[in-house]
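thread: overnight batch results

M.L. [08:02]
morning all. the overnight job finished for the chain we discussed friday. pasting input first so we're all looking at the same thing
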Amino acid sequence: MDMRADTGLPFMKMHGLGNDFVVLDGRVRAPALSIALIRAIADRHRGIGFDQLAVISGAERADAHLTFYNADGSESAACGNATRCIARHLMAETGKAALRLTTARGTLQAVDAGGGLTSVNMGQPQLDWRDIPLARAMDTASLPIDGTPVATGMGNPHCTFFVADAEAVALGEIGPRIERHTLFPERTNVQVASLIAPDHLRMRVWERGVGVTLASGSSSCATAVAAARRGLTGRRVKITLDGGTLEVAWREDGVWMTGETAHVASGVLTPDFLRTNA
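M.L. [08:03]
and the structure it wrote out:
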């Protein structure tokens, strides 16, 4: 696959519950990505549009390495739904039912869960303030912010509010404010969640560097961990997002997330587009 600007740049469009991605396969030739180009591809009117962009590259001791970027061009260590989507693609490509994928978050396991579902182990949650990270020492299960949210690291930082009705929260207003709260030196993803049943949560998400999204895998994992820490649920829950439902299980070996994926289309970014937005 030739990725020179004079031949265009092949891409795949995928989504997990409406959390959508542009995926570039750099195993043959690594794409030359600038912040300007990432933002241009992310533009839903003048580009392709995505919540995150993911690049697949080779790995010596794993099936592939994944790198993630937010729509604003910033890099993210973790993206659960993109990992599931790419895992499903690689399973179809290789015929394997289990994969090892390296990321900035670490090495993640992915398995075919049957029935078209894909599971990924997102690793152990980060619960210490230094690891999330927060700006100073504090109880991560009860932050000194109105609403006493929970902070969790899943390779990226999360701030989860438990509310009576997640639907009633003006997420577009509080999301950007909490994302850049001084307690989060690397900014944060923001979730609002309400309890439907002891094993079922309704959750909405504001993603760091993106905005309101239909779903988020790492946010779902963080919310499940936060709910279990608060004693609201057990360690296995169903999470209903705007785009659909994920199953999350906080096990001894990490936080497993299971759900549907979709490969929507494949295409090529034109040489003119690449030159204009280099």
